[in-house]
Amino acid sequence: MASRQPAGARPGAKFAQFKLVLLGESAVGKSSLVLRFVKDQFDDYRESTIGAAFLTQTISLDESTTVKFEIWDTAGQERYKSLAPMYYRNANCAVVVYDITQAASLDKAKAWVKELQRQANENIVIALAGNKLDLVTESPDKRAIPTADAEAYAREAGLLFFETSAKSSTNVRELFTAIAKKLPLDQAGPRNLRGAAPRPGVDLRPEAPGTQGAGACNC
Amino acid sequence: MDEIAPEYDVVVLGTGLTECVLSGVLSVKGNKVLHIDRNDHYGGEAASVNIETLFKKYRNVAPGEEPWKKYGRVNDWNIDLVPKLLMANGELTNILVSTDVTRYLEFKQIAGSYVQQGKGPKATVAKVPSDAGEALRSSLMGLFEKRRAKKFLEWVGEFKEEDPATHLGLNVGSCTMKEVYDKFGLEDNTRDFVGHSMALFPEDEYISKPGMAVEAINRIRLYVNSMARYGKSPYIYPLYGLGELPQGFARLSAIYGGTYMLNTDIDEVLYDDSGKVSGIKATMKDRDDQSDAMKFETKTKKIIADPSYFPGKVQVSGYLIKAICILKHPIDKTDGSDSLQLIIPQSQVGRKHDVYIAMVSSAHNVCPRGYYIAIVSTIAEKDANHHLELEPGFERLGEIEEKFMGPPIPIYEPLESGEKDNIFISKSYDATSHFETTTYDVRDMYRRAAGEELKVEGLREDQQLAQE
């Protein structure tokens, strides 16, 4: 179902949309990673997340395959363990972020991976991102988590793994591309066709036509 | 753990729908909001729960027993605790669209809207006609009555409160709905289904109350317009259950800077010398480790809360009785509908208040395929044997796999407006079948708490996101 074409696409072209959620301790750079990926921007003095809660970005894997990410930021609701089940619902992929200069942040990341495995879809694609690589490039003694340790954990838990820098943009695109490649393009649920095809339910917008797509059938 | 801010503009207690809508709107308007719930989940009384939680809430499950096991995966169930649906053209839909919370949710139609005539074995169930044309085909009326009903519904469609030419010579400001019905010569049965299954009045008081005609007409218009929106029924429903609604508005609040703390008890509410609220003391519990609780104190100018946080500041206005029933079949005589509302008007079964049935199913991702969840509800009229009051509803359901029914649920309302202490308390979810009264309460509370009318149209365009 995910291989439906948007209007005007070339024959044979594949287009799929996936929900991606971000997780990780406060201040590890979740929003910065997304901002770099979506807008190619970085802000040194970015405060705790307000605003960037719903962004989309498209990746072309090859000439005929396009993947669109619908990216959900925690909007700070993770701070006091108050993320809603809605956040995990139908997430196809997740980026769990830690800060390579903060030893405890990898433990928090591991806890988030556990939470994902408990709450999210069974076949969710999870990537582990060790962020703030730029700080370590400047002064290597700031590193608190050896690459090998995180890599070993990621392998064991079946996660994609990258060390990234939202600031210098290192490995950001690579991270999202690797996720796109690992997603099952032919098995996406109806929700993932959002934007590419009529949504399964009704569209509430006043200008929307009355009945939409599958909403008309009794299935 | 991050520090809690020393002061908030508003502290909101409870994450029911009313509280979450207010929290979302206030955050968008630039207020600094702290939103707390003593439970470890969102939704309060308006939550949707899984089947294990439902068994544990309503039954004494013996240790070692797991009666929910035969119903498949626990998390495939999202069972509403409050039986309500959204009117497609109603105010909650308007708020959802204006605030863009629709981005986080998906909706589906409810497949049918039905009404019962008669009682016992002779009872018939029919589709509620949605417009003048359908009235002509309805099995609810005889030939001549159909024509009268068609005329009436056509007039309702043309009615304009500000245009006396559409008033048929009636003084609509003060007349009763009885005078309107009399004008069209409608029979009692027609008045019954128009008033109860279209205007959705739960009892008959509206008929003889002077000045109620305009409200009744507007309610019928809301029904007809909602029906016209998507076609099958006037109702829509969020996939995964009503519990998604408060979560969506909580997310809106968080995006605009609202701080969320579940699993947090209020230890004390602090007041200043003039008796106005000045702050709270609270404890955030740790899910896994009870010794790891975090105590904190913060100032606030206002508190918005559901009734359970201030038992001394509310009174009981009535009792709702309901039974959550799990079925393995659609309801008889409803065309195999996967979801519906069925109203049993009070007069048909010798009661003062209607009996409602709201049913959803796997079509709305609230249960595994092959199951149906029907909630039968009404307002309590007796002091005991409440299951007998719901009996007309159970009769419609046929074979019931499981029936979950607790004691009557008190419906609370605040004793005061909140002007004196700056504590604004919501009403409990009432017995109506939709969220229109909930949105009246949202508007009323906003007016009292913020000192202005709530205008949701264009709400988000007016505000700059702090970081964008």
TrEMBL record, chain A:
Topology term for the membrane: Lipid-anchor
Primary site of residence: membrane
UniProt entry tagged with the keyword Membrane: yes
Record-linked CDD domains: Rab5_related
One Pfam assignment: Ras
Aminoacyl-tRNA synthetase in keyword set: no
Biological process according to GO: protein transport; vesicle organization; vesicle-mediated transport
Subcellular location: Cell membrane
GO molecular function: GTP binding; GTPase activity
PROSITE patterns referenced in this protein's UniProt entry, alphabetically: RAB, RAS, RHO
InterPro entries, sorted: P-loop_NTPase, Small_GTP-bd, Small_GTPase
GO CC terms: endosome; plasma membrane
Region Disordered: start-end pairs: 189-219
Keywords of the record: Cell membrane, GTP-binding, Lipoprotein, Membrane, Nucleotide-binding, Prenylation, Protein transport, Transport
Database matches in SMART domains: RAB (SM00175), RAN (SM00176), RAS (SM00173), RHO (SM00174)
Ranges annotated as spanning the membrane: none
Family listed: Belongs to the small GTPase superfamily. Rab family.
Annotated PANTHER family: PTHR47978
Descriptive protein name: GTP-binding protein ypt5
Automatic annotation (TrEMBL), chain B:
Annotated transmembrane regions: none
Cellular compartments per GO CC: cytoplasm
SUPFAM superfamilies: FAD/NAD(P)-binding domain
Signal sequence, renumbered to the chain: none
Recorded family membership: Belongs to the Rab GDI family.
PANTHER family, A to Z: RAB GDP DISSOCIATION INHIBITOR, RAB GDP-DISSOCIATION INHIBITOR
Stated name of the protein: Rab GDP dissociation inhibitor
